[in-house]
Amino acid sequence: MKVLVPVKRVVDYNVRVRARSDGSGVDLANLKMSMNPFDEIAMEAAVRLKEAGQVSEVVAVSIGTDACQDVLRTALAFGADRAVLVQTPEAALEPVVISRILKAIVDEEAPRLVLMGKQAIDDDCNQTAQMLAARLGWGQGTFACRLALADGEARVSREVDGGTRTVALPLPAVVSTDLRLNEPRYLKLPNIMKAKKKPLDIKPLESLGVNTSTGIRCLGVSEPPARKPGVRVESVEDLLHRLKHDAQVI
Amino acid sequence: MTVLVVAEHDHKILSDAGRRAVAAATALGGDVRVLVAGHHCGAVAEAAARLRGVTQVLLCDDPLYAHQLAEPLAVLIAALAADHQAVVAAATSHGKDVMPRVAGLLDVGQVSDITAIESPTVFQRPIYAGNVMARVCCEEPIRVLTIRTTAFAPAPEDGQAEITAIAAGPDPGLSRFVEDAMTRSERPKLGAARVVISGGRGVGSAEGFELLEAVADELGAAIGASRAAVDAGFVPNDYQVGQTGKIVAPELYIAVGISGAIQHWAGMKDSKVVVAINKDEECPMVQTADYALVGDLFEILPSLRDGLRQMKA
User: Fold this and answer.
1) Do B153 and B26 share a domain, yes or no?
2) Pick from B39, B27, B46: nearest CA to B86
3) Which Gene3D superfamilies match (chain A) (predicted)?
């Protein structure tokens, strides 16, 4: 069976971004970009299923500008068999639009499983997997920390408030990954070299005939309010005194 | 305008998060209706009917909703949404699971994790792990919204709405409940606690967390953790505070042996007072906390516990 893994190119998680002073957006010029960390976990999960002989083909897909080819090459170095770039003029599309585009790709590729990150660390939306599952009429296993395929079902343990919940989803299904599903592998140089030769198809967005309109738009961004500078205390007694008398929180 | 709130509950008790979602819905203006879908959940409907601002409670009591699975719930909510201009839920793991599926069925965009409501169509929400605030305008025909619970106070209980029973929706048959493995804790819930004490890699072991528990007992605090402490197996993963874990905003947050990566700050930076206890005076948590105590946590925590005991005595 085939697995589709959508991956997103985002600012590297170690980089601290700032709002532009005119509030028009976030300045991303010259910042290090990487594959969204949750998508790396989804890639790793897909490749492990292939290595276990449960999956025959892993296809990575990214939606964005030509620059997204770098994260698709990373996906290929993880072990994806081929990659698809849905080429768009702008980098940032709303999850609802992304879910329409992914639906079109799923209709073409007919995977039995879509494995993707639970959220992107730039917009922090946590929407696309659920929206895609709804659109496809498939079951969803969100925030997966364990995943097993057996008897035509995906058995997914999900991280929920208060603990873990396990559900069974008849395939095809959409699964979104949480941090603890696995530890993504370190990419070795020979695999990075091999990835350069693997197929990467480029599809212009227009070729998919997807409606890209949305009623959501960003009016502007700002820096969150800064905290007042703190004080260094010298002892436990000093700390307790300040918490009781200055801050009045104990 | 009519707003539908999806109540979160365990079939017996309406969650604190659900009460906060009602307060946010009231801030949108208009009629607020609450959907209580579950099994043997009449008590939840009665609690929802008492919340200020609620005009009607829709009670859908059916075994289909016994496990709150997203697939049948989303079908029910999307069908009801057609008569509303907005659908609101708390951005808990339940709201995050269900609401985008509702938005997907309705083919509308969603605004996640709202921290402020400027107008019925303009909201604020954090992006980039809370390092940037975005103002977002939503002009979808039906606004699907999740709210950050720490940004809204729970709705007070002085209302009296009528309860209307409604029929269950269809069963899409796309998922099956297998089992729950919940973490048992007598402590206050992390998301709602007035005081949170969290440990990081510096705590060193599960046994080290017993020192935090002793302090938490004196303060009536909930226990949290950084990702490093969870990954190291010191505590279960639902203790994690941060961009990918729980978002908390207690009056007092005590970070013990936590260096303070941006992903951790994203989960606790709205705390009123932050205390750092760490041996590394250069780490971001010590640099940014309101009160920083530099030293060995294995000496500081026991004396903190003793100091708190003396204050009470």
Assistant:
1) yes
2) B27
3) HUPs
Digit-coded pLDDT (tens) for A108-128: 999 999 999 999 999 999 999
Residue in chain B lying closest to A154 (CA):
B175
Residues of chain B contacting residue A145, judged by C-beta atoms under 8 Å apart: 237
Cβ neighbourhood burial of B141 (10 Å; 0-12, 13-18, 19+): exposed
CATH code assigned at B93: 3.40.50.620
Q: What is the CATH number of the domain that holds B258?
A: 3.40.50.1220
CA distances from A191 to A37, A73, A74, A185 (A): 19, 10, 9, 12
Domain count for chain B, please give it: 2
CA distance B260 to chain A (A): 12
- CB contact, 8 Å: A170 with chain B? yes
Closest residue to A160, CB basis, from B71, B93, B126: B93
Q: Across chain B, what does the average pLDDT equal?
A: 96
Beta B162-165 vs A57-64: how paired, if at all?
Answer: unpaired
Name the residue among B112, B129, B140 with its Cβ closest to that of A125: B112
Q: Give the DSSP H/E element, type plus range, for residue B292.
A: strand B291-294
B35-83 pLDDT, tens per residue?
999 999 999 999 999 999 999 999 999 999 999 999 999 999 999 999 9
Q: Does residue B180 fall inside a structural domain?
A: no
Going from the N-terminus, what domains does chain A have, and what CATH number goes with each?
A: 2-143+172-246 (3.40.50.620)
- Average pLDDT estimate for B215-242: 96
Residue B112: list chain A partners with CB under 8 A: 124-127
Choose the final residue of a domain: B125, B144, B165: B165
Question: Residue B94 belongs to what domain range?
Answer: 2-165
**Could you give the ipTM of this predicted complex?**
0.96
- The pLDDT of residue A91 is above 80: no
Is residue B130 in some structural domain? yes
Q: What are phi and psi of A97, to 5 degrees?
A: -70, -45
